[in-house]
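Hello,

Our lab assistant flagged a job as stuck in the queue for most of the afternoon. It eventually completed. Since we weren't sure the result was trustworthy after the delay, we are filing this so someone can double-check. Below is the sequence as submitted and the structure that was eventually returned. Let us know if re-running is recommended.
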Amino acid sequence: MNTDLASQAASSDQPLVLPRAEHHISRTRIDDNTLKVLYRLSRNGYRAYLVGGGVRDLLLGQRPKDFDVGTDATPQQIKKLFRNCFLVGRRFRLAHIRFGADHVVEVATFRRHPGPEELPEDPSEHAFFVQNQFGTPRQDAFRRDFTINALFYDIASFSIIDYVGGLADLTARRLRVIGNPLIRFTEDPVRMLRALEFAARLGFAIDEPAREGIYARAPLIAEAAPARLREEVLGLFRNGVGSQVLRRAQAMGLLAPLMAGYEGDDQTFTLLEQVDRLTKETGEADEALIIAALFVSRLWRRLDAAGQIPISEVLELSGLLIGPYCNHFRIAHGLRHQARELLVGSYRLSRGTGRKGERRFLHHPSTPKALQLFKLWLPIHGGDQQLAQQWQQAIELAQDNRQSAPKQEVNSPARRPRRRSSRPSRPRRATQRQPS
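-- returned structure --
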């Protein structure tokens, strides 16, 4: 990639265009169904670009999670070209082109920011109006969040198109906001969290204006929709960067407004590193385990200070600790219960074997996962590693015994004995047959 040429895009109205010979993106690395969509749009006279993170990841030599398509065709025009197309979205119509039961290629028409004179008089209609303005590829590039996410791959010429200096930032491994960070973070505060996520995932440095913007606008993230923030936090752990991003978010004043006043300590962030590692191994982000990991350090500090207390009080304390977090993110009661059981279970495991109610605890469905949390936490807190091994053996033995126990036949339950009346039975009256 030519660095001198890449730097020209940021200072010119004309895009920097890298022809096929000057970049290493190959169509063999693009999903076949996405190629079908790009080719059909192009053959019918429309611009068809691969856009967003897919282009960024291909240029970095990484495997994209998904591919998105940008075009100048309107949603209705797209629908006419594809029988398997479904239009979705209320604020902005997107085309979802389905291949099979579980593969969707998302196609979006190029958009733009409207001018001040174009906005409706009613402020409540601004958001809807802003999202529904079709534009040119250049206008679409400048309305995106970061320069590295605003690169286009043109299927007609196999070239890379850069309007915002994203190629230069990729070469410099720099994360830069398109436009004024203070304005862009005010428009969408979740961009601050996404900046920390991209920096962690890609190993990029956040440029100084963006860093200052996060410090200045951090409190605004509390105004974002809780459901969206919750999904963003889960996404951090799915990508294996939860600990790194949350630690940095706390240092920049973003964590407390993000998580209803939450503050982590070094032990918690170290534990979350282990949760990230576990998520990478399993491929699944266990939200109950994540919630429990966020509060296990705080719970154990309280219990260490209080000494031995009944399990019922541990259960109550666990509920109080996770309450503000769960209320903020509107966590369902079932999931709260799971997280609370993991916290209580990890404490019970720390008290050793041979206690009252152990048999019932060994057969509890949350105990194996509580042991998983306990194993991750024990080296950080400092404890006897043999204790975790003893519990592992006890749980495995309990499971083996349960599986080998004889099962009662469901279809032929034992019949209860018929109760006999204590009253004496009356003699049967003989029936006399009438002579024929």
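-- support follow-up --
The delay was a queue issue, not a problem with the job. The result is valid. The chain has three domains: 1-172, 173-254, 264-401. Residues 1-11, 125-129 have pLDDT under 50 and may be disordered.
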